[in-house]
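Appendix B. One record, verbatim.
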Amino acid sequence: MKPINKWRATLVRRWHTNIHMRDTHDDTGGHSARVALIITHYWPKCRRELLMAALTHDMAEIATGDVPGPAKRAKPDIEAAHSAAEDAWNAQNGIDYASKLAMGEQRMLNFADRLDAYLWAVLHGCNIKRDGWLECSEWLGAEAADMGLDIEGWFA
């Protein structure tokens, strides 16, 4: 893949299907950088593969589009199809860092990914009591507690 195409893959617009956040102008490059930042905050000595997975975890959305998390969680067949399409694109383009993660590292990536999404929603005034955000907040709190992480500092 040409370097310019990898660079363009970071420009996929997020939240386009969310009526409350579609005009917030987030893109996968900014999101991925923030996910990596969250990871380095909590796990400063993490492996390179985890950081690379954070930086590239949504790049395949240039081919698949940004399928909303609630849709994927509600319909396992949608999630499976989206995941298979992402895996194929990543393999074709030499971006397979997520496949090299240990289970604990995948958990770290999932946590940081959802924390960034939640923080973006809070920052942009989304009503966090609807559209699945309350459940996301509860999940983040439970995951943080289980992993021994303090997430309060992100909301100051």
